């Protein structure tokens, strides 16, 4: 079990003390979060990803709790780390050979203090209760940061869409919705897509939900097709949003994407549209990857080729070199971070940048890292970046663009409107700029100027905490 790091040690990231709080209150706050963290680890010792997510938040909250002891008195931290509801269910379906297969489905409804539960569905073999809780916990604060009225949730199944036919995916998605339908609704819980769940899967699930409910409730799922209530820019939103956030972070240091070399991991929606927007801002993106390895193109990744391979042909990224023979395919995912760059955007999955990768990036002169995926950087790697004055954009802030546009999709559904591409993208850009400003302001207010990890945690937490206090102990 990972030990909780010491707070306010001289020279550490946590080394600044607010003059407005006394020593006794600080010590009480330190002991409070230590007790909560140890209880979380003891209660579910196998959920390591969830432990990391909780620890990262708690590491930031000591000065907040010291300044606002009412949060401790009301048990806000104890309540926020425990889901309001965790649902687990079986998902039986029939494959193309006529054999019955059984997977396990999940939905965590973590916190509804500021709005209905909101968070994606992930179909991937790695999905388990701990992964879903980690993602749902992060979603609470990510959604809070957007400024939109949405709470935190997440869901999915240990089903692997890779290698499955469209009919098999349809059967699975419909069976998954047979159970999920009774737990969701426009004012209750609004799922969306995530890894392994795109417009195809959302369409199959929405069709099944509509049939079972006997009515058209467009606001129950987001990430829908434009033909039946979807929003423009939703596919691009997480990747574009990540780049917009990093752009603001760079501006604060007098820097920009222009003429920078960028490495990006992954080749799904987040990666593709991060590549597209970074390139539009003048950067040269030289890598992208999938489960088999990564492409290095010193001339800059041709994003249209990647789109066709991954979105149309649903192929493997190594096919890129067939059209761009000057590029190189390396059959390793980890080595992607050995490529020299000015800016790194991890957009694939959790824990893809560890201490070794972080050390290599720092050695190669990286100036900024922006998390497009959910928790792609280990806590130890984050510390390495911050200790070496690398600008770091945490995922709960930097990749909030996807859920922000999902919320805009909900708003359009509620009003029966469809906004233009330009209007949605402008709203997304403004949301990401506001998220950056709020994170930077919170960090400065509590004595951590420039530390966006702590700023994001504090800013996201306080809105939820205040809403919970206003609503009483429920």
From TrEMBL:
Positions annotated to bind NAD(+) = 238, 269
- Work out whether the entry's keyword set contains Nucleotide-binding: yes
Q: Which GO terms describe its molecular function?
A: glutamate dehydrogenase (NADP+) activity; nucleotide binding
* GO annotation (BP), single: glutamate biosynthetic process
Give all residue intervals belonging to the Glutamate/phenylalanine/leucine/valine/L-tryptophan dehydrogenase C-terminal domain.
231-472
Q: Which domain of life is it from?
A: Bacteria
Q: Quick one: a GO cellular component term?
A: cytosol
- Per the UniProt record, one Pfam family is ELFV_dehydrog_N
Catalytic residues identified in the record:
154 (proton donor)
Residues binding substrate are 118, 139, 142, 193, 406
Q: Which residue positions does UniProt flag as site: Important for catalysis?
A: 194
Q: Extract the InterPro entries matched here.
A: Aminoacid_DH-like_N_sf (IPR046346), Glu/Leu/Phe/Val/Trp_DH (IPR006095), Glu/Leu/Phe/Val/Trp_DH_C (IPR006096), Glu/Leu/Phe/Val/Trp_DH_dimer (IPR006097), Glu_DH (IPR014362), Glu_Leu_Phe_Val_DH (IPR050724), NAD(P)-bd_dom_sf (IPR036291), NAD_bind_Glu_DH (IPR033922)
Which UniProt keywords are listed?
A: NAD, Nucleotide-binding, Oxidoreductase
Belongs to which family?
Answer: Belongs to the Glu/Leu/Phe/Val dehydrogenases family.
Q: How does it assemble?
A: Homohexamer.
Q: What is this protein called?
A: Glutamate dehydrogenase
In its UniProt entry, the species of origin is given as: Natribacillus halophilus
Q: What is the lineage of its organism?
A: Bacteria, Bacillati, Bacillota, Bacilli, Bacillales
